[in-house]
Write a structure and sequence with these properties.
Layout: H1 3-8, E1 16-21, H2 27-37, H3 43-55, E2 66-67, H4 68-75, H5 79-91, E3 95-102, E4 105-112, H6 118-123, H7 125-134, H8 137-147, H9 164-167, H10 172-176, H11 180-191, H12 203-207, H13 211-219, H14 225-230, H15 232-242, H16 246-254, E5 257-258, E6 263-264, H17 266-280, H18 305-316, H19 319-329, H20 336-348, H21 353-364, H22 372-384, H23 390-414, H24 423-461
Parallel strand pairs: 1-4
Antiparallel strand pairs: 1-2, 3-4, 5-6
Helix pairs in contact: 3-5, 13-16, 18-21, 19-21, 20-22, 21-23
């Protein structure tokens, strides 16, 4: 942990703060906050959040900022309690905190985010799971029903809705070339919309990384410490997925800086990280489908030797290495989007690396490309089944292999005709049966005649 991060643990009451909102407030968001977020938050955090929203002023100048002691008095909290409440809001994606310095001294910027829309909240697995733990299952299901829109299908109906140009009139030139003000406004709203997120990398994982060394290395290239601390999740996720050293990460960041803003260009960083990984792990020219080193069967009970070899590779390799080796075994290669899709799954933190590797092996045994849709489908299924270890994943896959046989058996039973049989079908069936009986009798008669003929011929030969 760096010195600046340690300093944040004790907020000086004289330290200034400045509020800025990243969203609009509405009655619906107030309702979502009360119904969905309040069970997650400590009462102090809930009070602090509402107070900050009531205090935000879009027209206030940064030079007019207040000190923290005023905020402490306003919410009735001391510095440690205030910090804990603030961190709860940050963890739930309701605010972000930035450190800044100007001629007046150091200060913090608190960026406020409105609660997620109900549908987004329940799709955010971490928040939804935490809510389920805080309230009863019955209450959780009731909250889902309360915010769920009615499911009314209108696809079979004929739509007679009026279009915009059916009611209003705009000149053809304005339609083909919108005014410059419209273009400028659209670009402003598109580019300047920050997004709230829920951090899925635990503080313990972040603390395991040597941030102090990284900041010292990038500081030689005039990259500010705040730029690193603001993007800790992204940087750590990149390092964990590819297994880079601190020096590798520092070098990549130095090569991915936007020279105009002196900020990290993360699209460029992703591309350079993949290029470095491929450079450090070139595709082998020799065949890679050689059998892997055998694992002692006594190490894990109930698995075949092939499954044990798979478990060994899954536990030893990172998802990036496992993907690369699996593709090489198939005489193929991992595409850039496949690395990104796997990295996205890993950063969600819902499955450990070994279980992810088993999933990759499963998907690639049936499909040639790892699409995001395939990964999400398998991951959602495994999470629903409570799969948390590679051993549990293999057992689940073995159970699924027997399912098609049972389904086929049931489908064969359902194929038997039931109900009233049409007369034309009965007649056709009876005729076919009659013809089959006639053919059988004719064959018997022919066989009898051949036997008599052979007998007569033998008597003449005698």
């Amino acid at each position: 942990m760096t010195q600046s991060m340690k300093a944040d643990l004790a907020i000086d009451p004289q330290l200034g703060y400045f509020l800025v909102r990243a969203d609009h407030w509405s009655d619906l968001k107030q309702r979502v906050l009360t119904k969905l977020y309040q069970p997650l938050l400590d009462p102090n955090a809930f009070t602090l959040y509402l107070t900050l929203w009531s205090e935000v002023d879009d027209h206030q100048l940064i030079s007019q900022r207040s000190a923290h002691f005023r905020l402490f008095d306003l919410v009735g909290l001391d510095a440690p309690t205030f910090l804990h409440a603030r961190q709860e809001l940050e963890a739930c994606g309701l605010m972000k905190t930035f450190k800044q310095h100007d001629t007046l001294g150091d200060y913090l910027i608190y960026q406020l985010f409105a609660p997620l829309a109900p549908a987004k909240f329940f799709q955010e697995e971490i928040l939804a799971t935490f809510l389920l733990e805080k309230v009863s299952r019955a209450k959780f299901m009731a909250l889902q029903r309360e915010f769920q829109l009615p499911d009314v299908s209108v696809h079979a109906n004929q739509e007679i809705t009026a279009g915009f140009l059916d009611v209003f009139h705009l000149s053809t030139s304005a339609l083909l070339t919108p005014p410059a003000e419209v273009h400028a406004g659209a670009a402003k709203f598109k580019d300047n919309q920050p997004t709230a997120y829920v951090g899925e990398i635990s503080p313990a994982e972040l603390a395991s990384f040597d941030w102090e060394t990284l900041i010292a290395l990038v500081g030689r290239q005039q990259i500010e410490e705040s730029e690193i601390l603001t993007h800790k999740n992204d940087i750590y996720g990149l390092q964990k997925f590819y297994g880079f050293t601190v020096t590798d990460i520092a070098r990549l960041i130095g090569r991915s800086i936007n020279l105009e803003t002196n900020k990290i260009n993360f699209n460029m960083l992703e591309e350079r990280a993949l290029a470095l990984y491929q450079q450090l792990n070139p595709t082998e020219s020799k065949p890679t489908n050689e059998p892997a080193e055998s694992v002692k069967p006594a190490s894990v009970q109930g698995f075949s030797e092939i499954q044990l070899d798979l478990l060994k590779r899954a536990n030893e390799l990172t998802p990036a290495d496992f993907l690369r080796e699996t593709k090489q075994r198939q005489q193929s290669y991992a595409a850039e989007n496949e690395y990104r899709n796997v990295k996205k799954l890993q950063q969600r933190g819902v499955l450990n690396d070994a279980t992810i590797n088993i999933m990759l092996n499963t998907v690639l045994s049936s499909y040639t490309t790892l699409t995001q849709a395939l990964i999400d489908t398998f991951a959602q299924d495994w999470l629903k089944q409570g799969i948390k270890t590679p051993e549990a994943a293999l057992k689940y896959l073995a159970q699924k292999q027997t399912a098609p046989l049972k389904q086929q058996h049931r489908s064969q039973k359902r194929q038997q005709p039931a109900g009233v049989t049409p007369n034309w079908f009965k007649k056709g069936t009876q005729d076919a049966a009659a013809n089959q009986t006639t053919d059988s009798k004719q064959r018997q008669q022919i066989a009898q005649k051949l036997a008599n003929l052979n007998k007569t011929s033998q008597q003449r030969g005698e």
